[in-house]
Write a structure and sequence with these properties.
Elements (H helix, E strand, L loop, with lengths): L1 H25 L4 E2 L13 E2 L12 H11 L4 H6 L3 E9 L5 E8 L5 H11 L6 E3 L2 E13 L3
Parallel strand pairs: 2-6
Antiparallel strand pairs: 1-2, 3-4, 3-6, 5-6
Length: 148
Amino acid sequence: MKIKLLFTTLILLTASLNYAQVQHESDTVALTNVKEIAAPGIDTTIYNNVEKMPTFPGGEFKMYEFLAMNIRYPQRAREDGYSGTVYVRFVVEPDGTITNIEVAKGVGGGCSEEAVRVVKMMPNWIPGEAFGKKVRVTYTLPINFRLQ
């Protein structure tokens, strides 16, 4: 039963992440000013799309595996029948750390909180690059919660 649930979760995550990648590829390069104070000469620009997008260490399959192994369907969501896709937006910094984690679109029953919890657990990513240097890049990760 657990293997079937794990396999189903991996398939759903694969479909969701492919959708996110297509969505990122269709974006144009956009710049957003950040309202934080930085030392002079430090680039605080956050890019939406760059030449080389940030990646999870080991690639997409390892990310699916990480999510499948760490996500726990919230009991309240299970009891109340909540399901759907939580879109978590975050910034991958030039050193690979994940910051500015927020829910772009949530699901009730504790699913949004669980998605944020797991993103906070992620190891450092391989940062994105623009113009030959590592830059801050926003990334939106869809995480599916489906009752079986």
